[in-house]
Fold these 3 entries.
Entry 1:
Amino acid sequence: MCGRFVVRSSPEEIRRLLGYEDTPNFPPRYNVAPTQPIAIVRIDRGKRRFALTRWGLIPSWVKDPKQFALLINARAEGITQKASYRAAMQRRRCLVPADGFYEWQKTPGGKRPFYIHARGAGPMAFAGLWETWMDATGGEIDTAAIVTCPANAMLAPIHDRMPVVLAPEKYDAWLDTENVDAAAASALLKPAPEDMLQAYEISTRVNSVKNEGAELVEPAVAGDRR
């Protein structure tokens, strides 16, 4: 799964990678958590556009979000058949910019947090889905989920799932809901290449969503379990 992630690259670096027309300014975030606003890139009138959504997808047919489970991750397996994601897979696919993500390894002594990022650093993009939910008064909210797949061999000793990291040459196909149907898009949902990412243990300070800052991604030192 992907329950927390990091966006530390500059707005211009992310804009260069994802090729959207907008020029938003936003600060680095080191502990992005569910229900918080997250950036996505989607197609609007034939062009890539930047947007902010709530992390936690709500399908359009949901009547009461309070009675519906928070969908922060969408499993790639069978995604085209699942009621919660079927429409979004066909019409509302997006990219979620990130520099890395956190996973927790289960051990006899407790869960150990790890930071996973691209070798050489720099931003990347997760496959995502978005939806617009409307309440009874006509109020709208855009929401999104990150697509996950089985972990690759590098990450498997830490966790059995990982976000789908799309290569830049796959962005067009993933975003093109007019010409690439859900079945073809689902073929892009594969684990990252073994040599793309690297991981290292960090402090348990990341466990609290109240903690923020670059120190969260610093490697753990001996005895640092705070």
Entry 2:
Amino acid sequence: MIHDYKHSRSDLETSIRGLARWFDSSGYYLQELEQDRISRLLPDLFGYHILQIGSVIHKHLLDNSRINHKLVSSAVNVPETGKNPDLYCANGQLPFASESIDVVVLPHVLEFEDQPHQLLRETERILIGEGHVIILGFSPVSLWGFCSMFLKWRQQPPWNSNTISMTRMKDWLTLLDFEIIHYERFFYRPPFNNERLMKRLAFLEALGHHCWPYFGSVYLLLAKKRVVSLTPIRLQWQTRRRLIATGMIEPSA
């Protein structure tokens, strides 16, 4: 399936701000679950600097991290979240030195990017060797994905997002030489904007995890940047040069 990632700047701002409002209303319970999932992973990730790209979620996703220096960047101003990011910058051109960040968190950012591959490449560039990236994304293979097929024409978040399947995301990360450490799917409740009904349907989380685990509406990926070991080619080349220069064949045992 070919996605059209071309959006104007105004469309991007409208989508991101609309997504922030959605998380504050219909997506409140999803926000709680995402906070819980990330809070379980962050205490085991160490380093000096942790960066969250995108601030559409009202919760402070980095609070449970043991890393002291926490940064949140955003491509646009999102006053709906009630908090300002630490810096504004284009997601595809991050103002950080190469191999300077220990952990990067991407909460529902790639779905609204014109060039999601570029953001992943930038993430790989700024991460140190053995650094980690956490990705939250909407799954197209789910009840929500099915609903978005009929609601996309409304051009309202989250239904207007260009969802990327977890399988494709794994492939992209593998091509960038990441190792997948952990992944999971969750949130099996239908997209109802009714607080009482959403509470009553909370049992679907445990039921869905055991009965139809592949159809969670959201997925989480944790990947580690591999350190590529270099083969000492120079020593082999020196040996070959010596044999060629002398013109002699070394005696065999």
Entry 3:
Amino acid sequence: MIQISQNCIGCGKCVSACPFGALSLSNGKAVASNACTMCGACVSVCPMKALSLPQTGAVKKDLSAYKGVWVFVEIADDGQTQKVRPVGFELLSKGRELADQLGEELGAVVIGDNVQNFYAEIAGYGADKIYAVNAPAYREYNTLAYANAMITLIRKYNPSAVLFPSTFVGRDLSPRVSSELFVGLTADCTGLSIAEGNLIQTRPAFGGNIMADIKCPDYRPQMATVRPNVFKKKIIPGKTAQVVSENIAVPFEAGKVRVKETHFDPVNTQEKLDEAEVVIAGGRGMKDAQGFALLDQLAFKLGGAVGASRAAIDMGLKEKEKQIGQSGVTIASKLYVACGISGAVQHTVGVEHCDVIVGINKDANAPIFNVCKYGLVGDAKAILARVLEQLKK
């Protein structure tokens, strides 16, 4: 709660400045209620300097006991087979790099049933230790059960950093863990590095107009989520890992949620943007459904998937799940063709890891030409029609 000194003269300026209605006047003095969030809006308007935020950080916590970079490795289950989500290998490869810079170990946390089948594969991407919670009760993802297991492991072994994938599971699990441990969490990072022993977490901010570097120097572990296809996978031949098995009981509260039935819709591999080797995407310049029909034809010829920019999604030309960019899917295909897409940073942040980018736009000054390897200036619909004619031959 905001602190109010005897210098208060009851002028009321802080009362009108408080966005939460947490301040009022009583007996000629300002009084704060429990609605105060310590936002500090009142501090700057007080002419008597009578308001202040509580002092923090006077006693710094000893962080020397926190060592090691951890990666939560998610096991995907389609009802028939289990496999490690590829983003787990991407995070392990990046985690190996970060751990080497810190001179610490890289740990992989894997929770599930029969996870021993994946130990060798996980070790091959750089893990020094595998912290395994292996039991039938963990076959299905349960927020409370998984969060309890992660929190128990973190409190026991004190890692300095924990990385999660920005998947449905990772986005659900990581904030539950961070709030329980009372540490920060940076979401949807596009870059990770080390500076002065701290994890520097880079992500787009202010609508993607700037890239913000975020660090948490006073608390451990440092936590972040990372989208799939942001980092490259790197196999280390012959790498082995020590397995640390932990028996962690599922808390009683987890029983409040039970999976009664699971249904998986069949999905053509070519429709998965994050796994496709070729992606053809359209933007506002494709104009209508006929324009996107050309994209479908080209994708079919090249064995690829079709995506869209946010502008095209807003026009109703594609479903929301086909959006590529900061607020959509991040891809790392071998070939990416952007048709009628201007190339705003909110879009290009989702395709910057593609091997070859081709841009087609009638505006020669479109930003997409700053990031593509090959650029074609002209009407995208006319150019695609000619390309399709050549492919038919």
